[in-house]
Amino acid sequence: MKMKIENISVNYGEKEAVKNLSFEIDSGQIVTIIGPNGSGKSTLLKAMSRCLKPSTGNIYIDETNINEINTKTIAQKLAILPQVKNVSSDVSVEELVSYGRYPHLKFGKRLRKEDKEIMDWALEKTGLDSLRKRFVATLSGGERQRAWIAMSLAQKPKILLLDEPTTFLDISYQVEVLELVKELNETLGLTVVMVLHDLNQAARYSDTILVIKDGELCKLGRPSEIIKECLLKDVFRIEADIYDDKVNNCPYFIPKKTTA
Q1: For residues 76 and 64, what is the distance between their CA atoms, to the nearest angstrom?
Q2: 92 and 147 in contact (C-beta within 8 Å)?
Q3: What's the predicted TM-score (pTM) here?
Q4: H-helix or E-strand containing 207?
Q5: Beta 208-213 vs 216-221: how paired, if at all?
Q6: Residue 91's Cα: distance from chain center in Å?
Q7: Terminus-to-terminus CA distance in the chain, angstroms?
Q8: Measuring CA to CA, how many Å separate 151 from each of 74, 81, 115, 218?
Q9: 21/34 Cα distance (integer angstroms)
Q10: How far apart are CA 152 and CA 229, in angstroms?
């Protein structure tokens, strides 16, 4: 399922957080949004999920303006996993995952056999079947993030939006979550759009990288086109040595120093 972002701007009061952005996302791609702190990454993702309304411009899913799609239908096509997630301490993994089925239920109806089968599938896909009765609050960081992804999977979306899915996780859990995202993209054909801070992880796990600076689109391209000395210096104010990971077919860099 494709997305098209057409000349959107998003304001917070008098501050223009996103400025006249336009780009397209092909079906089945992993697209990562990167940029300095405060550049508008999360704001853009919220606008793409219809959590924020752009002050100008339009967003399309398969040629249909998202403002013309009712909320329930949007939730069946698109799932967003925000950076900050709250759930009661007595909610089990299984119950959390069941929330993903709500957009598919008729008003006042209970979970059907089909819904429970999809929940089982989401738990199996994320490796959480043996933990389904555990409270979410008792899980490790990586397990907890997988539980939220399982809930999103239970929506059966075509597009998955992830806002900094590795934040606050140890490096092993970061890799675990990103490997899961890659697997879901490859096996289910999910279109994935995520915000990441780690540029090497963005290069390793993305088909396309979108760079934002001061709310504006700075560059869009393959990882090999993005991880360049001039961009690292101009956007992130660092000098770095850049290398080619031939095994994973992606660039990576080692920072040397910051620039003025």
Answers
A1: 15
A2: no
A3: 0.92
A4: none
A5: antiparallel
A6: 24
A7: 42
A8: 16, 9, 12, 33
A9: 14
A10: 37
The amino acid sitting at 36 is P
* Partners of 15 in the β-ladder: 12
> Tokens 């389904």, residue?
132
Q: How many residues does the chain have?
A: 260
How far apart, in whole angstroms, are the C-alpha atoms of residue 113 and residue 124?
17
Per-residue pLDDT of the chain (260 residues; tens, 9 = 90+): 899 999 999 998 888 999 999 999 999 999 999 999 999 999 999 999 999 999 999 999 999 999 999 988 898 899 999 887 888 889 999 999 999 998 888 766 789 999 999 999 999 999 999 999 999 999 998 899 999 999 999 999 999 999 999 988 899 999 999 999 999 999 999 999 999 999 999 999 999 999 999 999 999 999 999 999 999 999 999 999 999 999 989 999 999 999 86
Half-sphere exposure of residue 14, counting CA atoms within 13 Å on the CB side?
0
- Neighbouring residues of 192: CB distance < 8 A, sequence distance ≥ 6: 29, 30, 31, 159, 160, 161, 162, 181, 184, 185
Give DSSP secondary structure letters for 2-65.
-EEEEEEEEEETTEEEEEEEEEEE-TT-EEEEE-STTSSHHHHHHHHTTSS--SEEEEEETTEE
Neighbours of 80 (CB within 10 A): 20
Query: For residues 43 and 17, is the Cβ–Cβ distance under 8 A?
Result: yes
Q: Side chain identity at 8, as an amino acid letter?
A: I
Tell me the residue type at 42. S
Give the C-alpha separation, 154 to 150, whole Å. 6
Give the integer Cα–Cα distance in Å for 239 and 232: 7
